[in-house]
Specification:
Number of domains: 1
Shape: elongated
Number of strands: 9
Distance between the termini: 38 Å
Radius of gyration: 18 Å
Helix content: 10-25%
Structural class: alpha+beta
Length: 241
């Protein structure tokens, strides 16, 4: 599905050591400045944007947590609230103690460089969707479905398909298969009339309105300060020597 991207795919695996969970969903912390960076002026504005954009182009918040959809080999049913990502941005992944993921602050249009890019760390594109997770005998819940460059291609194709699109028109299964480099994220369209086969009921207009009103926006993605990224870049360079 889509093209292979050599970047890490955290839509198909966790950033941190996996822990046992009783439910197929989890929490992910967005990158935010440390307290000692609070006095520093913000870096490039709108390095996080909404919409499809392009993962081929080189191109921030209120709540510090987003409830993330954890994709496993178990099939889950979701409903896209919108027909495009609510946020798209590039993210650095650093193998270190403490925080490991950092939003890239590079903005060519604004003439802003990123210390981690300058240090040779390649960022990966991230695309976040608002989805509603439906589970038999449970209340539907809002989740942030975060995908990488490989998965976004197939979702864009589904959205643009004359019979299957746009994404919010139908319901979708989502699951993961394979191991390591062969891991794939799988989607299948589910028509509203077929939800009974999954022991589920269609969402009402009021429910959809409720979830749309509480949906995540790109403001939830926190951007670290340049000071923080410079410190991390120096740490990476020191470890490499």
């Amino acid at each position: 599905m889509g093209r292979w991207d050599s970047d890490f795919e955290d839509d198909e695996q966790e950033f941190t050591e996996p822990t046992k969970e009783t439910a197929p969903t989890g929490l992910t912390r967005t990158a935010r400045p440390n307290n000692d960076d609070a006095e520093e002026a913000p870096v490039a504005r709108k390095v996080v944007r909404n919409g499809w954009g392009s993962s081929d182009r080189s191109n921030v918040g209120s709540d510090e947590f987003a409830k993330r959809l954890k994709v496993t080999d178990e099939i889950q049913i979701i409903k896209f609230i919108e027909d495009q990502p609510y946020a798209r941005y590039r993210q650095h992944w650093i193998e270190r103690k403490g925080q490991m993921s950092f939003t890239c602050i590079s903005d060519a249009e604004a003439g802003v460089s990123c210390p981690l890019c300058d240090a040779g760390n390649r960022p990966s594109w991230r695309f976040n969707f608002n989805v509603i997770l439906l589970t038999p005998n449970e209340e539907p819940v809002l989740r942030s479905y975060e995908v990488g460059a490989r998965v976004i291609d197939s979702l864009k194709n589904f959205n643009d398909h004359p019979a299957m699109g746009p994404l919010s028109k139908h319901y979708w299964t989502v699951s993961r298969s394979g191991k390591g480099a062969t891991t794939s994220t799988n989607h299948q369209m589910v028509r509203e009339g077929d939800l009974n086969d999954w022991n589920l009921e269609a969402l009402t207009a009021d429910a959809l309105k409720h979830f749309s009103g509480s949906a995540y926006t790109d403001d939830i993605i926190r951007t670290p300060s340049r000071k923080t990224l410079v410190e991390v870049a120096l740490e990476v360079q020191t470890d490499a020597n």
